[in-house]
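Incident review: delayed structure delivery

Summary: a single-chain prediction request sat in the queue longer than the usual turnaround. Root cause was a stuck worker, restarted by the on-call engineer. No data loss occurred. The affected request and its eventual output are reproduced below so the record is complete for anyone auditing the incident later.

Affected input:
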Amino acid sequence: MTGVAPPPPAPIIRQARWTIRSVRAPQDAQSARVQAWTCLPLFGWSGPIPLAIAILDHLVRNASEFGRCQGEIIEVQIARTENDDLLIDVIDCHSAFPDFERAVAGHLGQGLWRIAQHGATLFWHPHKSGKTVRGVLGSGRTS
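Output delivered after worker restart:
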């Protein structure tokens, strides 16, 4: 599959970006979690922050392990939209994501499947410097 770019989000009202020099999946994920715990409470997002951080953790681990990023940069972007959606983007240097649909369906492990079961919508798309995997998590509000 060539990837499906996510639809354009509602206007972004808060955003944070940072990079991680990949060492190993556990350290990379820990670095992402620390940064997210620092910035997410300031976003004013009404959704479950621990769930958002768990999703970020898994996406960074995937980038580190399967994106073959050791020694390379993993980029993280988190944004809150006007609609109170949280966009979690993890960008790595490897442009392929073979069997994305099978991974989300739980046929190649359970990480992406669990993310989807928690209500996040997952997308990925390649670009000239690698690929972006995006998890979109709604706030869970019923307003």
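Verification: The radius of gyration is 14 Å.
Action items: add queue-age alerting; document worker restart procedure.
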